[in-house]
Amino acid sequence: MRSLEIHAPGDLRLVEKEPTAPGPGQVRLAVEYGGICGSDLGYWRTGVSGTAVMKRPFVLGHEISGRIEELGEGVTGLAVGQGVTVHPARTRSPLPEELVGRENLHPDLTYFGSAAQDPHTDGAFAQSLTVDADQIVPLPEGLSTRRAVLAEPLGVAMHAVTRAGDLTGKHVLVSGCGPVGLLVVLAARAAGAAHITAVDLAEAARERALALGADEALESTDGMDQRISVAFEASGAPASLDGILRSIARAAIVVQVGNLPPTPVSVTLGPVVSKELDYRGTYRFVAEIEQAVQLLASSEVAEQVISDEFALEDAQAAFEAAAGRGSSKVVLTFA
Fold it and tell me: What are the residue boundaries of the Enoyl reductase (ER) domain, all occurrences included (predicted)?
């Protein structure tokens, strides 16, 4: 089988490996689609994603979908040929009591395609993948594996919405309309937001936001509607956060979805005090991927988040497209 490894910034390699047979309690699946995430792009561009620094080659990817090929001994409730996605996180030790319900913050958590731990955790950009059966998330009837490749980033978006609290009847801002920002629009609407304002410099991104359910799409936060009481910063750009803090209404909630740089940034924090803002972080997700597949099954419009599709052998071109200003979610095909 072929897998996609990162060896250094800009150095992607297709590597031949033997598939791993499933052991007891495991499942082997044929990967059909893989979505390129901002973290994958970070390793490809600079060798860094957030606070994780690449020290040696590893397999990229954590957004995948496919079909079960083989069941290990003792696995029940799943079937060969079944469409699935995969929860990419694993823990091997008990969760500290103070983190109950927040498994995403486990200090020993590993995640597919991540350099956060050493040794690094190989990802899922491979034609064949063997995982523990409890990582498998079956797809609801009618959900294609192509659309299901969005389940992991939608889980991230849904967790961000959860961090914001009840959105029922709220006016919401989403700043940054890349793939996760677009999925935050989808998740916020599903959570009951009454009005959604999207902000992005790129016209194509604004158009996608409107297609995903935003009520309006603007170039900046200047003159923002003072009824907006919840904002999601989804670009990871300090200037975007600065604009939100300056423009958001008093007593608002601001959720930081986009990864900010691991170095000091310039942001005017005075409004956090003078407006008594509630600034919250959000990190990956807990079990929201299970709700994500249900939302995807009922939302055909979600597929508009996917802008480009490339065969695995064209991975370099796929990463270049994903890094371009006109793209949204770029996916690889593994068949």
Answer: 7-332
CB neighbour list of residue 238: distance below 8 Å, 6 or more residues apart = 260, 261, 265, 266, 267
Question: What is the reported pTM?
Answer: 0.95
The Cα 329–Cα 35 span in angstroms is 7
Whether residue 32 contacts residue 333, with contact meaning beta carbons closer than 8 Å, is answered with yes
CB atoms within 10 A of CB 65: 30
Q: Which residues contact 97 (CB under 8 A, 6 or more apart)?
A: none
Which tokens go with 226? 């003072």
- d(C-alpha 207, C-alpha 82), whole Å: 35
pLDDT digit string (tens) for 205-263?
999 999 999 999 999 988 788 889 999 999 999 999 999 999 999 999 999 999 887 78
Domains of the chain: 2-138+299-333 (3.90.180.10), 156-281 (3.40.50.720)
3 state DSSP class of 151: helix
